[in-house]
Every structure is written in structure tokens, then in C-alpha cells.
Design brief:
elongated; 0% strand; 280 residues; mainly alpha; 74% helix; disordered N terminus
């Protein structure tokens, strides 16, 4: 459940994303080609031979490997087009990174605030009132508005959508119950739970930057089915790499308050940038 607020992307001040656009188009072409191979396979008769099966598997494997290379190129192009790794990870790029850093910091601040002071007191401290008459879905909507700078540009929209997914995930885990939600946030503030949330946030945030800019283009040029499959593959790849990354991170007690918390937010974002780009 959670909020159903619609977030409309902005298009103001977009830079030239030609390299990135080509990479996304190449990914859609591999999807298109794979679907053609599947259709040809289904249409052919007498294909139950070991030689044929090997040839088909080899063709699909080549397309998959080609797609992985295009994905790496796309991620690298996103970083370069946004001003480079240092600018992005520090939140200095208005194209990509700035809104994400702000929203991630607010997410961390809220979760740790609930762990330290309770849900109602934390809501009051950030100007969102008490819990009187509120359902969890109301609280989620308030938190989304609190964590969002605006919806003026694509970076803001990507951060908003990532925050929406994380908050809805928490709501579902808490069975849409305010008491369980409060307990869940307190638990997340300990160990690696909050790092898990941040990894999920950054993964969705990166995907949304690609989806906003290019999904409509692929839909228009390749059709709805290829477009949906292309961006599902991209999303699965990003989230999958993020999950692997976080599994490898050592579990440690982190003081999320102040400088140490900000450094940890940046560290997780930098690790994700490194793992999705070509030269990590």
C-alpha cells in the first residue's frame, strides 16, 4: 500500500546524453534480437537435436554478453555525463547525485530519530505533527513530502521515486501497522539494516535516471513489449549488483549521526558507482 502520489519528471536543463542514449538503444536491440531468436525457435520444427540446442544457447549467450557490455557503458556514460564520479558522489552534480544525497540523508535522519526518540516525537521534531488520526499510509505520504526537495527536475524525481519505493517497502514489511513500523525502523537503525535500505534507495535512484530519460524513446522506436523488457533487465541488473555489493560489506555498528553518517552514505553510494561502472 503506502502512497499513490504521482511524481512527474521534469525536463529542464537536460545536457547532451548522446552516448548514454546509444547504449540504451543497443540494449533494446539485444532484447529485440533475443525475442526474434525465441520466435524463430518456436516456429521451427525438428529442432530437438544437440547441435541445434548448442547453437541456440550460444547465440543467446552472445546476446547476453553483448547486453552486459552495453549496460556497463550506459552506467559509465551516466556518470561521465553528470560531471564525473567525484562530483556525483559528493552531491555536487545537479544532474545526478545532488537530490539523491539530500534524500538519503533525510531517510537516515528519520530512521535514527525514530530509533532514538520514537515515531511520534520524531514526526513532531520535523514539523509533521503527531499521530492522532493518522494511518501508516498518511505517515508515508508526509514522509515522502518531507524528504522531497521538489519535482522540478529529473534528479529530484529519481530521488522521490527511490524514496517512495523504500517507504512502501517498509510499510509492507510492517503490515501497514504504525506500531510495527516504529519497531521496524528501530531495528533498521542497528547493524546493517539501514545500509540495506540505503543500497536499495541508491539502486532505484540510479535506475530511475535511466528510465525517465529513455523509456519513452525505446517505447516509440521498439514497441511497448521490448521497452518494458529492456528496462526490467536494466532494473534487475542494477538491483542485483547492489544486493551482491551489500552482502559483501562487513556488518558493523555505525554511528549514523553527524559526520560519520554522512561519510557512510557517501561510501555506500561510491561503492555502488564503482561496481556498476566499467573500470571498478
Amino acid at each position: 500500500m503506502g502512497t499513490t502520489q504521482r511524481i512527474v519528471p521534469g525536463v529542464t536543463g537536460e545536457p547532451n546524453w548522446a552516448d548514454l542514449s546509444r547504449s540504451i538503444t543497443h540494449i533494446s536491440k539485444t532484447v529485440e534480437k533475443e525475442k526474434e531468436l525465441e520466435q524463430k525457435e518456436n516456429d521451427q520444427e525438428d529442432t530437438d537435436t544437440e547441435q541445434h540446442a548448442t547453437a541456440y544457447a550460444t547465440a543467446v549467450a552472445k546476446l547476453t554478453e553483448r547486453r552486459k557490455k552495453h549496460l556497463k557503458t550506459a552506467f559509465d556514460s551516466l556518470i561521465r555525463a553528470s560531471g564525473g564520479r567525484e562530483s556525483v558522489k559528493k552531491g555536487r552534480s545537479r544532474s545526478f547525485g545532488s537530490a539523491g544525497r539530500k534524500s538519503a540523508s533525510r531517510l537516515v535522519g528519520f530512521v535514527t530519530g525514530v530509533a532514538n526518540h520514537g515515531l511520534e516525537e520524531q514526526l513532531k521534531s520535523i514539523g509533521l505533527g503527531d499521530l492522532t488520526g493518522k494511518r501508516l499510509s498518511d505517515v508515508i505520504d508526509l514522509l515522502l513530502n518531507y524528504s522531497s526537495e521538489s519535482s522540478a527536475g529529473m534528479d529530484d524525481t529519481a530521488a522521490n521515486k527511490a524514496m517512495l519505493e523504500v517507504l512502501n517497502q517498509l510499510s509492507e514489511q510492517a503490515d501497514n501497522d504504525l506500531g510495527k513500523f516504529e519497531e521496524l525502523l528501530a531495528d533498521y537503525a542497528e547493524g546493517k539494516g539501514l545500509a540495506d535500505l540505503l543500497c536499495r534507495f541508491w539502486g532505484v535512484y540510479i535506475f530511475e535516471h535511466l528510465s525517465q530519460r529513455f523509456q519513452e524513446k525505446i517505447r516509440q522506436t521498439k514497441g511497448e513489449e521490448v521497452s518494458q523488457e529492456t528496462f526490467q533487465i536494466i532494473r534487475d541488473d542494477i538491483i542485483g549488483q547492489v544486493e551482491v555489493l551489500n552482502d559483501r560489506r562487513p556488518v558493523a555498528t555505525i554511528n549514523w549521526q553527524g559526520t560519520e553518517g554522512e561519510n557512510q552514505i557517501e561510501s555506500i553510494f561510491e561503492s555502488i558507482i564503482n561496481i556498476i561502472c566499467d573500470d571498478h
